[in-house]
Each structure stands twice: as structure tokens, then as C-alpha cells.
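pinned: reference chain
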Amino acid sequence: MEKAIRKYWPVFLLPTVCAFIIGFVIPFCQGLYLSLCKFQTVNKTTFVGLSNYSKAIADTLFQESFWLTVRFTLISTLLINVFALTVALLLTRKIRGTNLFRTVFFMPNLIGGIVLGYIWQILFNCVLSLLGKPLLTLNATYGFWGLIILMCWQQIGYMMIIYIAGLQAIPNDYIEAATIDGASPWQTLWKVKLPNLMPSITICLFLSLTNGFKLFDQNLALTGGEPAHASELIALNIYQTFYFRSGAQWKGIGQAKAVLFCIIVVAISLIQLKATRSKEVQQ
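pinned: its C-alpha cells
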């Protein structure tokens, strides 16, 4: 059986490779070319070189959305991972009802981003109206923190599951040895659990960072970038540039923004993976 698998593995791999090439490689290469063009449709293009990139970088709305996205990602990543790890630590204790709590915390991750955005928009606006405050779309600060709350509510349960798996994979001998040596629960957490939890931390940081940077549907549904693009994250800015700015030049600029966005996310992800993997310990 093993010999047959080794002999025919290219055949089994072929459908996946073809799907990857058709679904990712070809569109990505086409996108790179279109970012160097002025166009209305992909079949009618005019090559303009790097001018789209210079215009994209000079766009003040793009700059503002980029720094807003950086701030949003840093805050949401920190809160998501702190709360997810805290909940995971609580739910790995031998208390009744842990399976029910795990299910409840994980369920928000199963709801689509657009649906979540509209649900939370209604909730936030009801609360703000009762308090006599401006609605989300009328106050950029409320819109920003509304996105933070929505993102945390949706992602904490998913990261919690990863942390629980990591905590359960730590050998009991390590915990028992720390207890025998007189380590306090806080010392056990910092000296034993967290070092052995680094693979889970690497995964959760990677997911929360990339999810924060590429957040789109929740932003579109919750605030739509209002007021006056003040709550517009970078993915929504690219969407608005490509589809809602008039003129053939804006589609090329929007495509250039998308390429820059891809490069930024990949670079940040690689740096984060290298930094956290260097802290991982072998069990």
C-alpha cells in the first residue's frame, strides 16, 4: 500500500496543485500586471508603469486607513490573545460545565462577518441612543471601538480552542515538578506553561494579526467607513477605491493598493512567525 502511494502521489497531488494555480497563482499574476495599468475592464488595459503605486502611496485616505488598521490590529491582537488565554486557563481547570462554556465562547466564530456587523450595529446604536450619544456612523471613535469589540467577541472563542489544545499538550510531569519545587501558580504560568505554549501563541498571533489587517466584511457592515472615511480600514479603502471612485485611473490605483497591502501583510506575518518561533521550546 505504501509503495502504491509513493508511486502515485503526484496523481493525488495534481488536483490540489491545479486548483492552487487556477485559484491563486494566475489571478495573483494578473493582479500584478493590472496594478501597472490603467483600465476599465481587464481586457482593455493601458500600461502606465509604477505611476499607480506612486499615486496610491500619495493618497491621504490610503495613508490614514493604513495607520488606523495598524492601530486596530495591535489593540485587537493584544486583547484577543490575552482574553483567549485567560479563558483557556480557566476552562482547563477541573470545573463543571467547561464543555458548555467552550461551545458558547466558540459559537460567535461560526457567524458570518456581514451578519455580525449588522447585528452589532443595531445593538451599539440602541445602546448609544439610550445614552444620548452619537450613532456609530456619526462618531469615528465609537466606530473604531465598536470594531474592536466585535472582533474580540468573534475571535476570542476560536483562539481559546487553540490555547486549550496547547495547554492540554503540556506534560503533567512539568506541572508536578514545578509544584514540588514550590513554584506558585503565577511562577508555573510564566516559567512552565507559557514557554511550552509558544507554538499555540505563534499560531494565535499569526491568525489575529492577519485577521486584523485584512478585516473587511465587519468594517463594511458595522460602519461602512463612516463618518467621512474616518473608520475605514485598509481593505475597505481598497474596495472603495476600486469600485466607487469614478475614472479609469482609480481601478489601477486600487489594484496597486491591493498589491501593496499583500506585501505588507506577508512581510508582517513572516516577521511575527520568525520572532515567535525562535521562542518555542522542544518538549
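why pinned: The beta strands are 37-41, 44-47. The chain has a mean pLDDT of 86.
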